[in-house]
Amino acid sequence: MHPSAILCLLSGLPAAGKSTLARCLVSALRSRSWPCFVISYDDIILEEAFPSVNDETGSPDEKSSWKLHRQKVLLCLERFLQILNNTPHALYSPIEDDVIWMRFICCLKHKDGQSLSASNNSEILPDSLCMQFLRAPLVVLDDNFYYPSMRYEVFQLARKYCLGFCHVHLDCPLELCLRRNRHRATPLPDDVIIAMSNRIEPPNPNKNSWEKNSLAVTTMDFIKDKDINTIMALFENAMNNPLLPHEDDAGQKEADRICCASSLVHQTDRALRHVVSQAMKTAKDNQASSRNLRSLAEQLHKLKESLLDDLRHGHLRGRGFNLRSMDEVVIEATELFERETMNIVSSD
User: Which residues form the signal peptide (predicted)?
Assistant: First the structure.
C-alpha cells in the first residue's frame, strides 16, 4: 500500500543550492508524471520573525517568535496533508485567517510544482485536491533544518499519517556559500551563515535511526544528472516503505526522549561555549596571568560539563523541566551558567 504523500527535507547552509535543486527535482518529477509541491520556509516565515544575527545571540523574544512561526508552518503542513489524505477537517478552523497559512498557500500556488486551484489566497478547496494521483505526491520542504530536532518534528508528522519520508542534505563549502550569497539580491550577513555552519548537523543514521532514508549531495558547481537519479531512487524507496504509525510503547518513548535530550544538550553546549569564550576574553583583557587563565578555563570547563550532565539526566540543578519548551530550558541553563561563571570570576 502506497502512502498518500511523501515528505522530503532539503537541508543545508544558505546559498548551498537547495532552491536550485528543488527546481531540478520538479522538472525531473514532471517528466515522470510525478506530482510535486515545493514549500520554501523563506517564502512563508515573516522576515521580522528571524533573530537579528543568530539563535545564540538573538534575544529570547526573537527566538520565541522564530520558533512560533516554525510551529505554524508545521501546522499548515499538517492541514495540507489532511487535505491530500481526505482526512476530516480537524485543523481547518484554527488557522483560517492566519497570515502564515495565506503565505503557505501562495507558496504552493506560485512554485513550479503541482498547481492548485483555490477560491482565494487563504483557502484551498478540498475538492481541488481530491484528484486521484497516479503516484503519491512529493512534498519538498526547502529549509536549513540545521538541528536534528527540526527534522525530527517533520519525521513525527510523516509517521503520524503513515507517509513516505526522506532527507537530502546539500554539502557545500562555507566559502562558496558566502560567495554565492553575496551575489543575491538580498544577501544575508556573513556572520549569519558562518554561525549556522558552526552548528549545522548533517543527517547521521548511525546516531538517529529515523534518518536512515537520507543522503548527502555535493553542490560545489552544478546539479549532476547522477545526483538527480540517486534522489529519484531515494523517493522510490520512501514511497515503497511508508512509515508505520507510532506505537505508544516504552521503547519508542525512550528513543524520542533520547533524541530530544541530545538536541537540548547540543544547543545548550553551544550557548555555554559562547559564555566561556566571553569570560576568557574579559579575563585576558584584564591582563590575568597565564596561570590564572588556565585555572579559570579548567573551572569553567568543569562547570559546563556538570551542567550539561544535569541536562542529560533530565534536570537542571535538581529541578525537572519536562513540561517546558527546549528554548526555555536552554535560556535558563545559560543564565544559570552565567551567574555561576560570574561567581568564579569574582572569587579569583
Answer: none
